[in-house]
Amino acid sequence: MTLFRRKPILELQTEAANDQRLRRSLGPLNLTALGVGAVIGAGIFVLTGQAAANYAGPGIVFSFILAGLACAFAGLCYAEFAAMIPISGSAYTYSYATMGELVAWVIGWDLILEYLFAASTVAVGWSGYVVSFLRDFGIEIPAALAAAPYNHVAPADAGWNVWRLFAEGWMTTGAILNIPAMLIVVVITVLLVLGIRESAAFNNLIVAVKVSVILTFILVGLAYLNTDNWVPFVPPPEGPGKYGWDGILRAAGVIFFAYIGFDAVSTAAQEAKRPQRDMPIGILASLAVCTVLYIAVSLVLTGIIKYTELGVPDPIAKAIDSLGGGVAWLRPVIKVGAIAGLSSVILVMMLGQPRIFYAMSKDGLLPPVFSRVHARFRTPWLATILTGTLAMVMAGLFPIGLLGELVSIGTLLAFAIVCGGVFVLRFTDPGIHRPFRVPAFWLVCPLGVLFCGYLMWGLPRDTWARLLVWMALGFAIYFVYGRRHSRLARRQASAGASTPSAL
Protein backbone atom coordinates (compact mmCIF):
# COMPACT_ATOMS: atom_id res chain seq x y z
CA MET A 1 0.00 0.00 0.00
CA THR A 2 1.33 3.44 -0.90
CA LEU A 3 0.26 4.78 2.50
CA PHE A 4 2.91 2.61 4.12
CA ARG A 5 5.82 3.18 1.74
CA ARG A 6 9.03 3.28 3.71
CA LYS A 7 12.12 5.40 3.38
CA PRO A 8 15.24 3.21 3.03
CA ILE A 9 17.56 3.47 6.03
CA LEU A 10 20.63 3.52 3.80
CA GLU A 11 19.17 6.55 2.06
CA LEU A 12 18.65 8.28 5.42
CA GLN A 13 22.21 7.48 6.49
CA THR A 14 23.54 8.87 3.21
CA GLU A 15 21.43 11.99 3.64
CA ALA A 16 22.78 12.45 7.18
CA ALA A 17 26.34 12.23 5.89
CA ASN A 18 25.89 14.54 2.92
CA ASP A 19 23.43 17.20 4.12
CA GLN A 20 25.61 19.85 5.76
CA ARG A 21 23.12 22.72 5.71
CA LEU A 22 22.78 22.51 9.51
CA ARG A 23 26.00 23.13 11.46
CA ARG A 24 27.47 20.11 13.32
CA SER A 25 28.69 21.78 16.51
CA LEU A 26 27.22 19.78 19.44
CA GLY A 27 29.30 17.35 21.53
CA PRO A 28 28.12 14.90 24.23
CA LEU A 29 28.20 17.57 26.95
CA ASN A 30 26.08 19.93 24.85
CA LEU A 31 23.60 17.15 24.07
CA THR A 32 23.35 16.06 27.70
CA ALA A 33 22.85 19.68 28.70
CA LEU A 34 20.11 20.00 26.07
CA GLY A 35 18.38 17.00 27.63
CA VAL A 36 18.75 18.32 31.17
CA GLY A 37 17.71 21.74 29.92
CA ALA A 38 14.44 20.31 28.61
CA VAL A 39 13.72 17.86 31.42
CA ILE A 40 14.53 19.98 34.47
CA GLY A 41 12.02 22.76 34.34
CA ALA A 42 8.26 22.83 34.70
CA GLY A 43 8.24 19.27 36.03
CA ILE A 44 10.22 20.26 39.13
CA PHE A 45 9.35 23.93 39.53
CA VAL A 46 5.62 23.77 38.73
CA LEU A 47 3.97 20.42 38.07
CA THR A 48 5.53 18.45 40.94
CA GLY A 49 3.59 20.49 43.45
CA GLN A 50 0.40 20.66 41.43
CA ALA A 51 0.35 16.92 40.70
CA ALA A 52 0.99 16.17 44.39
CA ALA A 53 -1.83 18.49 45.49
CA ASN A 54 -4.39 17.36 42.93
CA TYR A 55 -3.63 13.70 42.26
CA ALA A 56 -1.01 11.78 44.21
CA GLY A 57 0.02 13.45 47.50
CA PRO A 58 3.50 12.34 48.65
CA GLY A 59 2.94 9.32 46.39
CA ILE A 60 4.07 11.63 43.58
CA VAL A 61 7.41 9.87 44.13
CA PHE A 62 5.86 6.68 42.75
CA SER A 63 4.48 8.68 39.81
CA PHE A 64 7.99 9.86 38.92
CA ILE A 65 9.35 6.33 39.25
CA LEU A 66 6.59 4.97 37.00
CA ALA A 67 7.14 7.72 34.43
CA GLY A 68 10.90 7.24 34.70
CA LEU A 69 10.62 3.52 33.95
CA ALA A 70 8.57 4.23 30.84
CA CYS A 71 11.19 6.79 29.84
CA ALA A 72 14.05 4.38 30.44
CA PHE A 73 12.57 1.88 27.99
CA ALA A 74 11.79 4.62 25.46
CA GLY A 75 15.20 6.27 25.99
CA LEU A 76 17.05 3.07 25.08
CA CYS A 77 14.99 2.78 21.90
CA TYR A 78 15.60 6.44 21.02
CA ALA A 79 19.34 5.91 21.55
CA GLU A 80 19.42 2.99 19.08
CA PHE A 81 17.53 4.95 16.43
CA ALA A 82 19.43 8.22 16.95
CA ALA A 83 22.82 6.49 16.57
CA MET A 84 21.65 4.51 13.53
CA ILE A 85 19.82 7.38 11.76
CA PRO A 86 21.59 10.61 12.87
CA ILE A 87 19.29 13.04 11.12
CA SER A 88 16.76 15.69 12.10
CA GLY A 89 13.21 14.52 12.65
CA SER A 90 13.39 12.35 15.75
CA ALA A 91 10.59 9.80 15.99
CA TYR A 92 9.08 11.03 12.72
CA THR A 93 12.16 9.96 10.74
CA TYR A 94 12.45 6.67 12.64
CA SER A 95 8.84 5.82 11.88
CA TYR A 96 9.27 6.65 8.19
CA ALA A 97 12.03 4.03 8.00
CA THR A 98 10.21 1.31 9.91
CA MET A 99 6.44 1.60 9.63
CA GLY A 100 5.83 3.74 6.59
CA GLU A 101 4.70 7.18 5.52
CA LEU A 102 1.25 7.30 7.11
CA VAL A 103 2.60 6.28 10.53
CA ALA A 104 5.44 8.78 10.07
CA TRP A 105 2.91 11.51 9.38
CA VAL A 106 0.93 10.55 12.49
CA ILE A 107 4.02 10.70 14.67
CA GLY A 108 5.26 13.92 13.04
CA TRP A 109 1.89 15.58 13.60
CA ASP A 110 1.92 14.23 17.14
CA LEU A 111 5.40 15.69 17.74
CA ILE A 112 4.09 19.09 16.68
CA LEU A 113 1.52 18.74 19.46
CA GLU A 114 4.26 17.64 21.86
CA TYR A 115 6.84 20.37 21.28
CA LEU A 116 4.60 23.28 20.44
CA PHE A 117 2.35 22.79 23.44
CA ALA A 118 5.33 22.00 25.69
CA ALA A 119 6.91 25.36 24.92
CA SER A 120 3.59 27.08 25.66
CA THR A 121 3.07 25.10 28.87
CA VAL A 122 6.47 26.00 30.26
CA ALA A 123 6.10 29.63 29.25
CA VAL A 124 3.00 29.81 31.45
CA GLY A 125 4.99 28.37 34.37
CA TRP A 126 7.80 30.83 33.67
CA SER A 127 5.29 33.67 33.84
CA GLY A 128 4.09 32.55 37.29
CA TYR A 129 7.60 32.62 38.73
CA VAL A 130 8.50 35.96 37.12
CA VAL A 131 5.35 37.61 38.46
CA SER A 132 6.10 36.26 41.93
CA PHE A 133 9.78 37.33 41.72
CA LEU A 134 8.92 40.87 40.68
CA ARG A 135 6.29 41.10 43.42
CA ASP A 136 9.05 40.52 45.99
CA PHE A 137 10.62 43.77 44.79
CA GLY A 138 7.38 45.73 44.85
CA ILE A 139 6.68 45.41 41.13
CA GLU A 140 3.11 44.27 40.69
CA ILE A 141 1.94 42.93 37.32
CA PRO A 142 -1.87 43.02 37.15
CA ALA A 143 -3.44 39.56 37.27
CA ALA A 144 -5.42 40.36 34.13
CA LEU A 145 -2.13 40.69 32.21
CA ALA A 146 -0.44 37.57 33.62
CA ALA A 147 -3.09 34.85 33.37
CA ALA A 148 -4.95 32.86 30.75
CA PRO A 149 -8.27 34.33 29.59
CA TYR A 150 -9.66 30.84 28.91
CA ASN A 151 -10.00 27.58 30.84
CA HIS A 152 -11.71 24.28 30.15
CA VAL A 153 -13.52 21.85 32.45
CA ALA A 154 -15.01 18.85 30.67
CA PRO A 155 -18.70 18.06 31.37
CA ALA A 156 -18.92 15.34 34.01
CA ASP A 157 -21.72 13.56 32.15
CA ALA A 158 -20.07 13.56 28.70
CA GLY A 159 -18.80 9.96 28.92
CA TRP A 160 -16.80 9.23 25.75
CA ASN A 161 -18.68 11.75 23.61
CA VAL A 162 -15.65 13.27 21.87
CA TRP A 163 -17.48 16.33 20.60
CA ARG A 164 -18.92 17.22 24.02
CA LEU A 165 -15.59 16.59 25.75
CA PHE A 166 -13.82 18.89 23.30
CA ALA A 167 -16.37 21.60 22.59
CA GLU A 168 -18.20 22.06 25.87
CA GLY A 169 -16.93 23.35 29.18
CA TRP A 170 -14.95 26.35 27.94
CA MET A 171 -15.09 29.43 30.16
CA THR A 172 -13.54 32.86 30.44
CA THR A 173 -11.47 33.79 33.50
CA GLY A 174 -11.66 37.57 33.31
CA ALA A 175 -7.98 37.90 32.37
CA ILE A 176 -6.88 39.55 29.13
CA LEU A 177 -3.60 37.83 28.14
CA ASN A 178 -0.61 36.22 29.81
CA ILE A 179 1.84 38.89 28.63
CA PRO A 180 5.03 37.63 30.40
CA ALA A 181 4.53 34.15 28.90
CA MET A 182 4.25 35.67 25.44
CA LEU A 183 7.34 37.83 25.88
CA ILE A 184 9.67 34.98 26.85
CA VAL A 185 8.59 33.04 23.77
CA VAL A 186 9.51 36.01 21.57
CA VAL A 187 12.97 36.32 23.16
CA ILE A 188 13.71 32.60 22.77
CA THR A 189 12.53 32.65 19.16
CA VAL A 190 15.01 35.41 18.30
CA LEU A 191 17.85 33.52 20.01
CA LEU A 192 17.06 30.31 18.10
CA VAL A 193 17.02 32.10 14.76
CA LEU A 194 20.52 33.45 15.46
CA GLY A 195 22.16 30.01 15.64
CA ILE A 196 22.48 26.57 17.25
CA ARG A 197 25.93 27.27 18.71
CA GLU A 198 24.75 30.41 20.48
CA SER A 199 21.61 28.66 21.68
CA ALA A 200 23.60 25.72 23.07
CA ALA A 201 26.04 28.01 24.91
CA PHE A 202 23.13 29.90 26.47
CA ASN A 203 21.51 26.61 27.46
CA ASN A 204 24.71 25.26 29.07
CA LEU A 205 24.94 28.34 31.30
CA ILE A 206 21.31 28.10 32.36
CA VAL A 207 21.56 24.37 33.09
CA ALA A 208 24.51 24.96 35.41
CA VAL A 209 22.52 27.62 37.28
CA LYS A 210 19.33 25.64 37.72
CA VAL A 211 21.00 22.35 38.73
CA SER A 212 22.97 24.27 41.38
CA VAL A 213 19.75 25.82 42.67
CA ILE A 214 17.95 22.47 42.81
CA LEU A 215 20.82 20.84 44.70
CA THR A 216 20.78 23.76 47.16
CA PHE A 217 17.03 23.30 47.72
CA ILE A 218 17.50 19.57 48.35
CA LEU A 219 20.35 20.05 50.82
CA VAL A 220 18.60 22.86 52.75
CA GLY A 221 15.25 21.06 52.70
CA LEU A 222 16.70 17.89 54.23
CA ALA A 223 17.26 19.83 57.46
CA TYR A 224 13.56 20.78 57.64
CA LEU A 225 11.88 17.48 56.79
CA ASN A 226 8.75 16.72 58.77
CA THR A 227 7.82 13.08 58.23
CA ASP A 228 4.28 13.81 59.45
CA ASN A 229 3.74 15.48 56.08
CA TRP A 230 4.27 12.09 54.43
CA VAL A 231 1.35 10.53 56.30
CA PRO A 232 -0.52 9.10 54.53
CA PHE A 233 2.09 8.63 51.82
CA VAL A 234 -0.63 7.50 49.41
CA PRO A 235 -3.77 9.44 50.40
CA PRO A 236 -7.06 7.51 50.28
CA PRO A 237 -9.04 7.94 47.03
CA GLU A 238 -11.48 10.82 46.81
CA GLY A 239 -12.80 10.12 43.32
CA PRO A 240 -11.58 9.05 39.86
CA GLY A 241 -7.95 10.09 39.43
CA LYS A 242 -7.77 11.89 42.79
CA TYR A 243 -5.41 10.22 45.26
CA GLY A 244 -4.98 6.51 45.81
CA TRP A 245 -3.17 4.46 43.18
CA ASP A 246 -5.49 5.79 40.51
CA GLY A 247 -4.23 9.27 41.39
CA ILE A 248 -0.61 8.10 41.19
CA LEU A 249 -1.28 6.83 37.67
CA ARG A 250 -3.03 10.06 36.70
CA ALA A 251 -0.13 12.12 38.09
CA ALA A 252 2.40 9.99 36.20
CA GLY A 253 0.59 10.76 32.96
CA VAL A 254 0.30 14.47 33.72
CA ILE A 255 3.96 14.95 34.69
CA PHE A 256 5.24 12.74 31.89
CA PHE A 257 5.81 15.62 29.49
CA ALA A 258 8.53 16.86 31.85
CA TYR A 259 10.66 13.91 30.70
CA ILE A 260 10.71 14.69 26.99
CA GLY A 261 14.18 16.20 27.06
CA PHE A 262 15.88 13.17 25.61
CA ASP A 263 13.38 13.23 22.75
CA ALA A 264 14.44 16.82 22.11
CA VAL A 265 18.08 15.66 22.06
CA SER A 266 17.28 13.32 19.18
CA THR A 267 15.91 16.19 17.08
CA ALA A 268 19.42 17.73 17.10
CA ALA A 269 21.09 14.59 15.71
CA GLN A 270 22.01 16.35 12.45
CA GLU A 271 23.86 19.01 14.45
CA ALA A 272 25.91 16.56 16.57
CA LYS A 273 29.63 16.25 15.86
CA ARG A 274 29.78 12.44 16.22
CA PRO A 275 26.16 11.34 16.44
CA GLN A 276 26.81 7.58 16.53
CA ARG A 277 28.63 7.98 19.82
CA ASP A 278 27.29 11.25 21.20
CA MET A 279 23.53 10.73 20.75
CA PRO A 280 23.20 7.68 23.07
CA ILE A 281 25.35 9.45 25.67
CA GLY A 282 23.25 12.63 25.54
CA ILE A 283 19.92 10.79 25.68
CA LEU A 284 20.68 8.29 28.44
CA ALA A 285 22.85 10.57 30.60
CA SER A 286 20.25 13.35 30.68
CA LEU A 287 17.50 10.86 31.53
CA ALA A 288 19.50 9.34 34.42
CA VAL A 289 20.46 12.69 35.95
CA CYS A 290 16.96 14.09 35.75
CA THR A 291 15.15 11.06 37.17
CA VAL A 292 17.31 11.15 40.30
CA LEU A 293 16.72 14.89 40.74
CA TYR A 294 12.94 14.54 40.28
CA ILE A 295 12.63 11.86 42.93
CA ALA A 296 14.81 13.77 45.39
CA VAL A 297 12.92 17.05 44.91
CA SER A 298 9.48 15.42 45.24
CA LEU A 299 10.50 13.74 48.50
CA VAL A 300 11.90 16.95 49.99
CA LEU A 301 9.05 19.14 48.74
CA THR A 302 6.28 16.98 50.22
CA GLY A 303 8.36 16.49 53.36
CA ILE A 304 8.64 20.18 54.28
CA ILE A 305 5.07 21.26 53.45
CA LYS A 306 1.74 19.45 53.35
CA TYR A 307 0.91 18.32 49.83
CA THR A 308 -2.54 19.93 49.96
CA GLU A 309 -0.87 23.37 49.93
CA LEU A 310 1.17 22.81 46.77
CA GLY A 311 -1.44 23.49 44.10
CA VAL A 312 0.08 26.89 43.17
CA PRO A 313 2.13 28.17 40.20
CA ASP A 314 5.33 28.33 42.30
CA PRO A 315 5.20 25.38 44.76
CA ILE A 316 8.91 25.30 45.63
CA ALA A 317 8.87 29.00 46.52
CA LYS A 318 5.78 28.38 48.67
CA ALA A 319 7.56 25.52 50.44
CA ILE A 320 10.52 27.80 51.22
CA ASP A 321 8.15 30.46 52.58
CA SER A 322 6.67 27.88 54.97
CA LEU A 323 10.06 27.39 56.62
CA GLY A 324 10.15 30.92 58.09
CA GLY A 325 12.74 33.66 58.08
CA GLY A 326 15.73 31.39 58.64
CA VAL A 327 15.91 30.46 54.98
CA ALA A 328 14.36 33.61 53.50
CA TRP A 329 17.57 34.09 51.50
CA LEU A 330 16.70 30.95 49.53
CA ARG A 331 13.41 32.29 48.18
CA PRO A 332 14.87 34.65 45.54
CA VAL A 333 17.54 32.06 44.71
CA ILE A 334 14.86 29.45 44.00
CA LYS A 335 12.93 31.86 41.85
CA VAL A 336 15.99 32.84 39.84
CA GLY A 337 16.76 29.15 39.34
CA ALA A 338 13.18 28.45 38.30
CA ILE A 339 13.12 31.35 35.86
CA ALA A 340 16.45 30.26 34.36
CA GLY A 341 15.40 26.62 34.29
CA LEU A 342 12.09 27.23 32.62
CA SER A 343 13.80 29.47 30.07
CA SER A 344 16.06 26.61 28.98
CA VAL A 345 13.08 24.24 28.66
CA ILE A 346 11.32 26.69 26.35
CA LEU A 347 14.52 27.03 24.35
CA VAL A 348 14.98 23.28 23.86
CA MET A 349 11.33 22.65 23.02
CA MET A 350 11.37 25.43 20.47
CA LEU A 351 14.66 24.14 19.10
CA GLY A 352 13.10 20.73 18.50
CA GLN A 353 9.85 21.79 16.83
CA PRO A 354 11.32 23.60 13.77
CA ARG A 355 13.54 20.59 13.12
CA ILE A 356 10.47 18.36 12.95
CA PHE A 357 8.97 20.82 10.46
CA TYR A 358 12.31 20.82 8.60
CA ALA A 359 12.38 17.03 8.23
CA MET A 360 8.73 16.76 7.17
CA SER A 361 9.15 19.57 4.66
CA LYS A 362 12.25 17.98 3.09
CA ASP A 363 10.14 14.85 2.53
CA GLY A 364 7.44 16.91 0.83
CA LEU A 365 4.79 16.30 3.49
CA LEU A 366 4.75 20.00 4.42
CA PRO A 367 5.31 23.04 2.15
CA PRO A 368 8.97 23.84 1.26
CA VAL A 369 8.91 27.05 3.30
CA PHE A 370 9.44 24.94 6.43
CA SER A 371 12.80 23.60 5.23
CA ARG A 372 14.37 26.92 4.28
CA VAL A 373 17.71 27.43 6.06
CA HIS A 374 19.09 30.90 6.72
CA ALA A 375 22.19 31.52 4.60
CA ARG A 376 24.13 33.16 7.44
CA PHE A 377 22.80 31.60 10.65
CA ARG A 378 22.24 28.11 9.15
CA THR A 379 19.04 27.59 11.09
CA PRO A 380 15.50 26.74 9.85
CA TRP A 381 14.51 30.32 10.51
CA LEU A 382 11.05 30.51 8.96
CA ALA A 383 9.94 27.34 10.76
CA THR A 384 11.38 28.75 13.98
CA ILE A 385 9.45 32.01 13.60
CA LEU A 386 6.21 30.13 12.87
CA THR A 387 6.78 27.90 15.92
CA GLY A 388 7.41 30.93 18.09
CA THR A 389 4.30 32.72 16.84
CA LEU A 390 2.01 29.74 17.54
CA ALA A 391 3.60 29.05 20.94
CA MET A 392 3.26 32.72 21.89
CA VAL A 393 -0.47 32.74 21.09
CA MET A 394 -1.19 29.56 23.05
CA ALA A 395 0.90 30.66 26.04
CA GLY A 396 -1.05 33.90 26.14
CA LEU A 397 -4.49 32.26 25.99
CA PHE A 398 -4.52 28.92 27.83
CA PRO A 399 -3.68 27.68 31.38
CA ILE A 400 -0.82 25.34 32.25
CA GLY A 401 -3.00 22.35 33.22
CA LEU A 402 -4.82 22.19 29.89
CA LEU A 403 -1.62 22.56 27.86
CA GLY A 404 0.38 20.11 30.01
CA GLU A 405 -2.07 17.23 29.62
CA LEU A 406 -2.03 17.61 25.84
CA VAL A 407 1.77 17.49 25.84
CA SER A 408 1.78 14.34 27.97
CA ILE A 409 -0.52 12.34 25.73
CA GLY A 410 1.41 13.41 22.63
CA THR A 411 4.72 12.45 24.22
CA LEU A 412 3.48 9.06 25.35
CA LEU A 413 2.15 8.23 21.90
CA ALA A 414 5.49 9.20 20.33
CA PHE A 415 7.44 7.04 22.77
CA ALA A 416 5.19 4.04 22.21
CA ILE A 417 5.65 4.25 18.44
CA VAL A 418 9.44 4.54 18.76
CA CYS A 419 9.58 1.46 20.99
CA GLY A 420 7.44 -0.44 18.49
CA GLY A 421 9.63 0.76 15.63
CA VAL A 422 12.83 -0.61 17.15
CA PHE A 423 11.12 -3.96 17.70
CA VAL A 424 9.83 -4.11 14.11
CA LEU A 425 13.18 -3.15 12.60
CA ARG A 426 15.04 -5.91 14.43
CA PHE A 427 13.01 -8.40 12.36
CA THR A 428 12.63 -6.54 9.05
CA ASP A 429 16.31 -5.55 8.82
CA PRO A 430 18.40 -7.39 11.41
CA GLY A 431 21.69 -6.92 9.55
CA ILE A 432 21.90 -3.13 9.43
CA HIS A 433 24.74 -1.52 11.39
CA ARG A 434 23.62 -0.37 14.84
CA PRO A 435 26.27 1.67 16.72
CA PHE A 436 24.08 1.31 19.83
CA ARG A 437 21.77 -1.65 20.45
CA VAL A 438 18.87 -1.87 22.90
CA PRO A 439 19.73 -4.68 25.35
CA ALA A 440 17.12 -7.47 25.53
CA PHE A 441 15.04 -5.69 22.88
CA TRP A 442 12.45 -8.49 22.97
CA LEU A 443 11.62 -7.36 26.53
CA VAL A 444 12.50 -3.65 26.61
CA CYS A 445 10.54 -2.64 23.48
CA PRO A 446 7.22 -4.31 24.43
CA LEU A 447 7.53 -2.98 27.99
CA GLY A 448 8.06 0.52 26.60
CA VAL A 449 4.87 0.25 24.54
CA LEU A 450 2.89 -1.18 27.47
CA PHE A 451 4.10 1.40 30.02
CA CYS A 452 3.38 4.32 27.71
CA GLY A 453 -0.04 2.92 26.81
CA TYR A 454 -0.85 2.41 30.49
CA LEU A 455 0.04 6.01 31.33
CA MET A 456 -1.98 7.29 28.37
CA TRP A 457 -5.01 5.39 29.64
CA GLY A 458 -4.72 7.20 32.98
CA LEU A 459 -5.16 10.64 31.40
CA PRO A 460 -8.58 12.39 31.45
CA ARG A 461 -11.12 11.67 28.76
CA ASP A 462 -11.20 15.27 27.57
CA THR A 463 -7.45 15.01 26.90
CA TRP A 464 -8.14 12.00 24.69
CA ALA A 465 -10.88 13.97 22.96
CA ARG A 466 -8.51 16.83 22.16
CA LEU A 467 -5.93 14.33 20.85
CA LEU A 468 -8.52 12.76 18.54
CA VAL A 469 -9.56 16.17 17.19
CA TRP A 470 -5.90 17.11 16.65
CA MET A 471 -5.26 13.84 14.81
CA ALA A 472 -8.37 14.29 12.64
CA LEU A 473 -7.02 17.69 11.58
CA GLY A 474 -3.64 16.09 10.84
CA PHE A 475 -5.17 13.37 8.64
CA ALA A 476 -7.04 16.03 6.69
CA ILE A 477 -3.79 17.92 5.98
CA TYR A 478 -1.97 14.72 4.99
CA PHE A 479 -4.58 13.57 2.50
CA VAL A 480 -5.10 17.05 1.05
CA TYR A 481 -1.41 18.06 0.80
CA GLY A 482 1.16 15.61 2.17
CA ARG A 483 0.23 12.50 0.21
CA ARG A 484 0.17 14.42 -3.06
CA HIS A 485 3.55 16.09 -2.54
CA SER A 486 5.48 13.20 -0.97
CA ARG A 487 8.94 13.13 -2.53
CA LEU A 488 9.26 9.42 -1.83
CA ALA A 489 6.01 8.78 -3.71
CA ARG A 490 7.15 10.85 -6.67
CA ARG A 491 10.49 9.09 -6.78
CA GLN A 492 8.86 5.69 -6.70
CA ALA A 493 6.36 6.72 -9.36
CA SER A 494 9.12 7.96 -11.66
CA ALA A 495 10.99 4.70 -11.21
CA GLY A 496 7.86 2.73 -11.97
CA ALA A 497 7.67 1.29 -8.45
CA SER A 498 4.41 -0.31 -7.50
CA THR A 499 5.27 -1.58 -4.00
CA PRO A 500 6.70 0.05 -0.87
CA SER A 501 10.47 0.35 -0.99
CA ALA A 502 12.38 -2.34 0.82
CA LEU A 503 14.68 -1.53 3.65
Fold and architecture overview:
With 503 residues, this protein is an all-alpha fold. It has a single domain, classed as Amino acid/polyamine transporter I, CATH 1.20.1740. It is built from 19 helices and 2 strands. The protein has helices at residues 9-18, 28-39, 42-56, 60-84, 91-98, 101-136, 162-167, 179-194, 196-222, 244-255, 261-267, 275-304, 315-321, 330-362, 381-397, 400-428, 441-457, 461-485, 487-494; strands at 150-152, 170-172. A two-stranded antiparallel sheet has the order 1-2. α2 (28-39) crosses α14 and α4 crosses α17. It is globular and about 75 Å long. The chain starts with 8 loop residues before the first helix and ends in a 9-residue tail after the last helix.
CATH architecture level-2 label = Up-down Bundle
Mean pLDDT: 82
Number of helices: 19
State the CATH topology. Amino acid/polyamine transporter I
* Spatial ordering of strands, largest sheet: 1-2
Question: In sequence order, what are the helices and strands, one letter per element?
Answer: HHHHHHEHEHHHHHHHHHHHH
CATH homologous superfamily name?
A: Amino acid/polyamine transporter I
Q: For the CA atoms, what is the radius of gyration? A: 22 Å
* Biggest pleated-sheet summary: 2 strands, antiparallel
Range of strand content: under 5%
Low-pLDDT residue spans: 497-503
Class in CATH?
Answer: Mainly Alpha
Supply the number of structural domains.
Answer: 1
Beta strand count: 2
Shape: globular
